[in-house]
Amino acid sequence: MKILIIEDDKAMADIERDFLEMNGFEIEHETDGAKGMERALKGGFNLILLDLMLPGKDGFEICRHIRSKTDVPILMVTARIEDVDKIRGFGIGADDYISKPFSPTELVARVKAHIAQYERLKNIAVKDGASSGDAEIDLGYLKINPATRRVYAFDREVALTNKEYELLYFLVSNTEKVFSKEQLYDRIWGEDMYGDIKTVTVHIKRLREKTEKNPINPLHIQTVWGTGYRFSV
User: Fold this and answer.
1) What pLDDT, in 10s, does the model give residues 114-162?
2) Residue 23: exposure state from Cβ atoms within 10 A (0-12, 13-18, ≥19)
3) Where would I find the beta strands (DSSP E) of the chain?
4) How confident is the model at residue 178 (pLDDT cuts 50, 70, 90)?
5) Which residues, 6 or more positions from 35, have their beta carbon under 8 angstroms from its beta carbon?
6) Nearest alpha carbon to residue 136 among 160, 172, 107, 100
7) Architecture category of domain 133-231 in CATH
């Protein structure tokens, strides 16, 4: 398993490298944001550890660009812990946050959990594709192809992150059923994850922006006040 660390603080990067290498990971490290992004886009990594404050390009810009090209897990490492930063990061495709200072053992646990979940979801996608062939879920305005994991809304393809796709597919596969934020978090992110449950709200918002005609007044991805969310046809 190979991890790219994009971090300008050498002491912090050394701590991350030491503990991850002790747990069997191969590490590459970049201190400059632009160079880190360039290396990330070449591929070959199982996870990217991305500092928020970087010279060259900041973490938000790097995350947005990487996510537009690949669904590899991105774990943001930052001393900024304001909710607005977390929401912004989740909104542009970050999978999780870990705030400085942090326990190295917690970092390793989160890295392992995100990589394991990513591999599990890829395996599920392969199995679903093999069993369903090219069959699409066709709701008229919305089409989902499980074999290719492509989604079309109003006859245009929409780019979804891995977790956005999994969340949408799960809701569509359970039409009219209501799920709490906790249930959705456990199903999509996994019970062993350490992340913030607010990410469910952010991902729902992103899905509405990408698949609803009027995201402010959604017809299909509905909020059931005091309970959670459901997908309605």
Assistant:
1) 888 777 766 655 455 444 444 678 888 999 988 888 899 998 999 888 8
2) middle
3) 2-6, 26-30, 47-51, 74-78, 96-99, 137-138, 142-145, 150-153, 156-158, 221-224, 228-231
4) very high
5) 56
6) 172
7) Orthogonal Bundle (1.10)
Asked if 162 contacts 71 with a C-beta cutoff of 8 angstroms, the reply is: yes
| Distance in angstroms (rounded) separating the CA atoms of residues 91 and 208 | 12
- How many Å apart are CA 47 and CA 72, to the nearest integer? 6
Q: Which residues of 115-154 are buried (b: 16+ CB within 10 A; e: fewer)?
A: bebbeebeeebeeebeeeeeebbeeeebbbbbbebebbbe
**The two three-digit tokens of residue 43, written as one number:** 């591929």
Q: What pLDDT digit, counting tens, does each position of 51-65 carry?
A: 988 887 888 889 988
pLDDT of amino acid 87? 66
Q: Tell if the pTM clears 0.85, that is, is over it.
A: no
| Mean pLDDT, the chain, whole residue set | 85
What's the mean pLDDT in 24-49? 93
Residue type, 165: Y
Query: What is the rounded distance in angstroms from the CA atom of residue 191 to the CA atom of residue 208?
Result: 25
Question: Hey, what CATH topology would domain 2-114 get?
Answer: Rossmann fold (3.40.50)
Sorted by where each begins, the domain ranges of the chain are 2-114, 133-231
Q: How many CB atoms lie within 10 A of CB 184?
A: 22
